[in-house]
Amino acid sequence: MSRIAYVNGRYLPQPEASVNVEDRGYQFGDGIYEVVHIYDGRTIDEDRHLDRLERSLREIRLPMPMSRAALRLVLREVARRNRVTEGLLYMQVTRGVARRDHAFPSKPVPPAIVVTIKRIPPYPAAVDHWGGSAITHPDLRWARRDIKTVNLLPNCLARQAAREQGAIEAVLYDEATGMVTEGAATSFWIVDEHGVIRARPLGHEILPGCTRAALLAELAEAGIGIEERAFSLDEMRRAREAFITSATSFVRPIVKIDGAPVGDGKVGPVVRRLFDIFARHVKGGLKNAA
């Protein structure tokens, strides 16, 4: 069965789904996207993702293509038509179709929206075989990384560099300061040499990760302390543990960076506990279901 996509009001077999060549998302990357994880038929942290979608759209002065309630219905219908209960819902909103010109259309046009879905493997049963390696890579992205724009060329180049070195992620850093920002497609965390869980504070330099926010809420509820404080490449290399979070990585240990082990090169006790906490968040709590 061909996958079904939603494109500007129509549900279409994916091979037949298309956008106009003058769609501003295609021409300029003038658009926003979001990805929502579905587990056991439930959307995980959906409100966080829709909040971020609306915020990103506001930041580039683009209206929502429909009400939030209507968008929720579209997401569920795409999942239903594709019979997916474990997967990723992808939504993309662009400024629509207009004659090619860098400035916004003088007469506003309707935003364009595409929603697709794909199956993914089940949530990992255990953390021991979930670890991976990373490389470091200069952060070449634009200055507003807090906006989840479809302009992802620097991220693609960084991820390709990681793949070519057998790694699962590129840890990005500011060349001028040597400070770590985030992963090419993930939030990046360390357990520093003193045993403190650390994540860079939110700002224009990083994306406000929804999985990050969900994990922070779970840690607060569990009484586990964390410092939102920037760290350098040198501090990262002295860390006891490191991990990434995202809608697709969940909580994923990083056991090697640039070929050198993180700590003892094994999944550490802190990340092991955080993996278990987040697994309960995804699998157990109805508070996570939309």
From the N-terminal CA to the C-terminal CA, the straight-line distance is 27 Å
- The third-level CATH topology of the largest domain is D-amino Acid Aminotransferase, Chain A, domain 2
Overall helicity: 25-40%
Tally of structural domains: 2
Determine Rg (CA atoms, Å): 19 Å
* Count of helical stretches: 7
CATH domain class name of the largest domain: Alpha Beta
Overall spatial form: globular
Strand tally is 15
CATH superfamily of the largest domain: D-amino Acid Aminotransferase, subunit A, domain 2
Written description of the protein model:
- The structure is a single chain.
- The chain is of the alpha+beta class.
- The chain has two domains: 4-119, Aminotransferase class 4, branched-chain amino acid transferase, N-terminal domain (D-amino Acid Aminotransferase, Chain A, domain 1), CATH 3.30.470.10; 132-288, D-amino Acid Aminotransferase, Chain A, domain 2.
- It has seven helices and 15 strands.
- It has helices at residues 24-28, 46-59, 68-82, 153-164, 210-222, 233-237, 269-283, and strands at residues 4-7, 10-13, 31-39, 42-43, 87-94, 112-119, 132-138, 169-173, 180-183, 187-191, 197-199, 227-228, 241-246, 250-257, 260-261.
- Strands 7, 8, 9, 10, 11, 12, 13, 14 and 15 form a nine-stranded mixed beta sheet that branches. A six-stranded antiparallel beta sheet has the order 2-1-6-5-3-4.
- Helix 5 packs across helix 7 (269-283).
- The radius of gyration is 19 Å and the shape is globular.
- The chain starts with a strand and ends in a 7-residue tail after the last helix.
- Its EC number is 2.6.1.42.
- InterPro entries: Aminotrans_IV, Aminotransferase-like, BCAT-like_C, BCAT-like_N, Class-IV_PLP-Dep_Aminotrnsfr.
- One of its GO terms (biological process) is amino acid biosynthetic process.
